[in-house]
Amino acid sequence: MSDIGDWFKSIPTITRFWFVGSVAVPFIGKFGFISPMYLVLFPRDFFNKFQLWRPLTATLYFPVVPTTGFLYLVNLYFLYHYSSRLETGVFDGRPADYLFMLLFNWICIVITGLIMDMQLLMIPMIMSVLYVWAQVNRDVIVSFWFGTRFKAFYLPWVILGFNYIIGGSFVNELIGNLVGHLYFFLMFKYPMDLGGRSFLSTPQILYRYFPSRRGGVSGFGAPPSRRPVPQEQGGGGGGGGRHNWGQGFRLGDE
């Protein structure tokens, strides 16, 4: 039991709370403590009956039955694996920035879910985080099923196909990838690589409650460096100034 306790304590704080919620809420519905009908997202009940908890529970809930149990465990592993690496990698020592990324992705997914009448939001949320990790570590070689190896850049799309095979749908994964791409483009790609303005910034209230710290354990990717601002009197010729986005540490066994 001590090994399990040590493993649990080693999970980064934000990922740990997300992981626990994604285990507890499905089992609350599974064992009938709360009816699953109150845990999924129904736009009509959200708007007309002001059941404001539904977007949160729909992000944490997943129906655990024999036909979906394997898919649930796979995505739970993706949550733990890639959220931990983002939180201890590019967002190491910056819990407010990581929490803001999660909130931004979550709000986008909830809005999409309300528009498209999606009842479950767990997979899109996990995929959005996985997509950001894959972009930050796009040139890292990762291993997948049956010993296949490829660059992390392709991982979200490989998982999309994998979940389609075992689950019969790819809409959730596609929405997660698109939301993750939106965050990555607005936060990193557009302002840092393309020299555009920054449209996203972490609210100061999050820094107040989740202050940044120094000296964490770094690894598993780094954000691209900001593109230099062009000088007015600069002459000469145009090298494009694009960056290598593969500034990630290789995974130990991948």
What is the strand and helix layout of this fold?
Elements: H1 2-10, H2 13-30, H3 43-48, H4 54-60, H5 69-87, H6 95-116, H7 122-136, E1 141-143, E2 149-151, H8 155-167, H9 171-193, H10 204-209
Antiparallel strand pairs: 1-2
Give an overview in words.
With 254 residues, the protein is mostly helical. 54% of the residues lie in helices and 2% in strands. It has a two-stranded antiparallel ribbon with strand order 1-2. The longest helix is centred in the last third of the chain and has 23 residues, at 171-193. The two termini are 28 Å apart.
Features:
single chain, 10 helices, 54% helix, 254 residues, globular, disordered C terminus, two-stranded antiparallel ribbon, mainly alpha
What is the number of beta strands? 2
| Unreliable segments of 5+ consecutive residues | 216-220, 227-254
Helix content: 40-55%
Largest sheet: 2 strands, antiparallel
Fraction in beta strands:
under 5%
Order of adjacent strands in the largest pleated sheet: 1-2
Figure out the total of helices. Answer: 10
Span between termini: 28 Å
Mean pLDDT: 84
The ordered string of helix (H) and strand (E) elements is HHHHHHHEEHHH
Estimated radius of gyration? 19 Å
Briefly note the structural class of the backbone.
mainly alpha
Overall body shape: globular
In short:
This protein has 10 helices and 2 strands. The radius of gyration is 19 Å and the shape is globular.
